[in-house]
Amino acid sequence: MDLRCRDDQLAVRDAVRAFVRERIWPRASGWSEAGEFPIALLPELAGMGLTGLTVPTDQGGSGLDALTTALVAEELGAGDGSIALTLAAHNSLCIGHLLVAASAEQKQRWLPPLARGEHLGAWALTEPGAGSDAVSSKTTARRDGAGWVLNGQKQFITNGSIAKLIVVIAATADRRLTAFGVRSDQPGFRAGPGEKKMGLWASDTAPLVLEDCRISDADRIGELGAAFGDVRKVLDRGRIGIGALAIGLGRAALETATAYAKERRQFGKALSEFQMIQWKLATARTELDAGRLLIHRAAGLADAGKPFTREASMGKLYATEAASRAANAALQVLGGYGYLRDHPVERIVRDARLMEIGEGTSEIQRIVIARDLVLAS
C-alpha cells in the first residue's frame, strides 16, 4: 500500500493549515466563549473553498476526493472543533446527501450557492426518540395533492438554526424513509432554541419543528421510501470526516502538551525529561497516527470506488477514542493549567468527546464491524 499523499493533496492540506493557524486557532477560544458560530467567518471559509469541498468544480465547488477532504478535516479540527463540525455538517451531511441522491436539476439548483458559501446547509435525521434506530422516525411526510405535508421534530441538528437549506429525513410509510429539501423560511418550519452543550460551544445545535410544512414534490430527494440506503452512504463518508476531525483535535492537544512539557520545569528539570510524561506523549502520538492511517485507508477505498463501510467504522471508532485519550493525557500533562478555560486543552477535551457520539456512536461502530465479520464468515 502506498501511504504517501500526492503533491496536490499535500498542497491543499498545507494551504488549509496555514489558514487555520492564522485565522482560526487564535480566535477559537473567543468564539467558544461567545457561544455561537461566527457567521462573519463564512466568506473567508468560502474563499478557501471550504464550503464546497466535494462539490464538482463545474457547480462551484472544490471537487476534492475523499482523502484530500480527510486531510482538510484534520486541519480544521486542529484549529477549532466547532468550525470543523459546522463545515462537516454542511459538506459531509447536507451536501453529501445531495451528491448521493439529488436529481440533476436539484443539484444545479442547490449545490452552487452551498458551495459558494452563500448559506449553510444542515441534515436532519435524529429525533427525540430515534437516534441510532433511524428507521423509527416519527417525523412523517404525507402526500397532499402534488406535494407533501411534513410533521414532526428533529433533535441535535448541527447548523439547525443557522442553515438555509435542510435535508430532512421523514417517514413516508412504516419504517420507510424519504428525504426532502426544506428551506428555513418555509411556512411550518422553525428551529427551536440552541442547545446548551458540554462542548463545541461555537457550533450551532438546535431542535427543528415541522408543523404542516408543505413541500413540493420537486423538493423530494431520491426515490420514495428509499432514503435509508442513502443515509447509510452519507454516514459512511461522514464517518471518515469525523474521524479525521477527531485526529485534528487530538493532535492540537498533543502539540500543546508537548510544547508545555518542554518549558515547564519541576524538580530542577523540564517535564519532558520525566519518563512518565514521555510515555503519555508517545502513546498519544502512536494512537493518533494509527487512527489517521485507518481513516486514510477508508478514504483511499472510497476514492477507488471499493466498499469501505467497515473500514470507515473502524477508522471512526479508533480515531475518535484515540483523540479523547490524547486530549485527556494532554490535560494531565498540563495539570491545573489544563483544567482552566484560559488554555485550549480544556476546550479540546470537551469538544473531542462528541466525536465518539455523533454520526454513529462507538457502540454502533462496533456493531457495524462485528456484523461485517459475522457475514463475512
Describe the structure.
The chain is α+β, with helices and mostly antiparallel strands and 377 residues long. It has three domains: 109 residues, Butyryl-Coa Dehydrogenase, subunit A, domain 1 (Orthogonal Bundle); 106 residues, Butyryl-CoA Dehydrogenase, subunit A, domain 2; 149 residues, Butyryl-CoA Dehydrogenase, subunit A, domain 3 (Up-down Bundle), CATH 1.20.140.10. The chain has a four-stranded mixed β-sheet with strand order 1-4-5-8. A four-stranded antiparallel β-sheet has the order 2-3-7-6, with helices on one face. A hairpin with a 2-residue loop joins strand 4 and strand 5. Helix 7 packs antiparallel against helix 8 and helix 8 runs antiparallel to helix 9. The chain starts with 6 loop residues before the first helix and ends with a helix. The model has no long low-confidence stretch (mean pLDDT 96).
